[in-house]
Amino acid sequence: MSVVQRLGAGWLLDHLSFINQCGYETHGSLAHPPHAALDTCAPSVGRLCAASACATTCTSRDDPPPGDALEPEGKRGKTRYVFREEFFDVLKPHIVAAAPERLCQVISYIFFFFQVSWFIYFPCLLILQKRKRKCAFNQGEVDALEYHTKIRELIWEGTLHLVQEGLKSGFLHCTTTKLHCSKNVVPGPMGCGLAELCEMAKQFPAINDSDHEAVRAIDDKTFILEQDLHSCVIENNSSCAKMIVLMGQKYLVPPKSNFLLSDISCLQPLLNCKKKYDVIVMDPPWENKSVKRSNRYGYLSSWQIKQIPVSSLAAPNCLVVTWVTNRQKHLRFVKDELYPHWSVKTLAEWHWVKITRSGEFVFPLDSSHKKPYEVLVLGRVQGRVEEALRKSEEVLPIPDHKLIVSVPCSLHSHKPPLTEVLAEFVKPGAECLELFARNLQPGWTSWGNEVLKFQHIDYFTVMQDE
What we know:
It is a single chain. The protein is of the alpha/beta class. The protein has a domain at 196-349 and 375-403 and 418-457: Rossmann fold, CATH 3.40.50. Helices cover 27% and strands 22% of the residues. The protein is built from 13 helices and 18 strands. The protein has helices at 15-20, 100-116, 118-130, 139-169, 194-201, 226-231, 268-272, 289-294, 302-306, 310-313, 328-341, 385-392, 419-422, and strands spanning 3-7, 10-13, 25-28, 56-58, 77-83, 215-217, 233-236, 242-246, 249-253, 257-261, 277-282, 314-324, 344-354, 373-381, 403-406, 432-435, 444-448, 460-465. The protein has a 12-stranded mixed beta sheet. The chain has a 3-stranded antiparallel beta sheet with strand order 3-5-18. The chain has a 3-stranded antiparallel beta sheet with strand order 4-8-9, with no helix packed on it. Strand 8 (242-246) and strand 9 (249-253) form a beta hairpin. The chain starts with a strand and ends with a strand. Keywords: Membrane, Methyltransferase, Transferase, Transmembrane, Transmembrane helix. One of its GO terms (biological process) is methylation. The chain crosses the membrane at residues 106-128. GO terms for molecular function: nucleic acid binding; RNA methyltransferase activity; site-specific DNA-methyltransferase (adenine-specific) activity.
């Protein structure tokens, strides 16, 4: 269970526990193939098309990926993987808030200093009075401050109660003395450039959808080529994890999960499945100045996000959840333009609050630099009245406001799991879809141009080898 505590204010989540309970256990002789075998079939992005026959494969008992040596007979065991704990070792805030008593000491010292040296500073003060300092906020900053003022008390009180319960249960620790002193910043693997791979896939010959299967299951005897990877949904319908090798890099696929690796221009394979989803969660790459400056990842304009065919993917009364940055421009766009465009009625705004393992906010709550929370906008697809009424009887109504409090992963954009949080608001056995995903979950279909990013084997460690 990822839910550590459930209160009226919301949930305290254990993100790491959720990942490790997904069932990352592989079976077969090549469940944990030798690392040395990776180099024999690891084409660069530039040589992708020429090496399409061997760059992407699925591990198997009988047909190993090219370059992987067969293990001696009798070594057919199982290997269990766990996500590396150090990615959740957020032991102290990124910015430490000043303690009230220390602040009082500083103010007293400044007051005394000015009193003693008044005759020195008095002329300067007169000059400063004549000069009016420009400190006007722009409209975006005014809107952000107004929004923060409105929700501040809810976040403060709700987080306080959830943290108190977390400390009582032992999930959180009031001091870091009980915690091992590892560094917060842990480098992750380089991977194989999934977004670039999606761009290269556009060079493959077009496939006639009528002649191509919509879903391709991973089994122990079938190789999966890049052309298959981008042209159909890949499914692991088994009860154990599977390992796939993509351009020489290994990725773990959890049981009962589906994914499509493509960008927004290649969504047709997802539509070809003709599946309707009861839950759609999305984390769009919002456009902002810092993203443009860093060039860390691509972003989409508001116009491009509106082109996502949510209406074709959503079942009647589908619950739509969108992660939004703290820019009020984006929040207004989702509520006033995006959701109405998809015939989605906005129902609530929830907040994900990020804390350290000792229960402190990762940023001061009133920080002008960054806030320790992110926004989720929840809505439902509007359909026929009688159908909506029937569906609404099966699930609880969406509350106006809830908090999801958790220790964040240090990996950029690794969002907390919403599976258990949303369970009481959707029907049992609901079909779930995540758009712009960077990792996979059992029971979910995931899509994105970096959908396997956090499934890279280097993010995991071997816990048990039998």
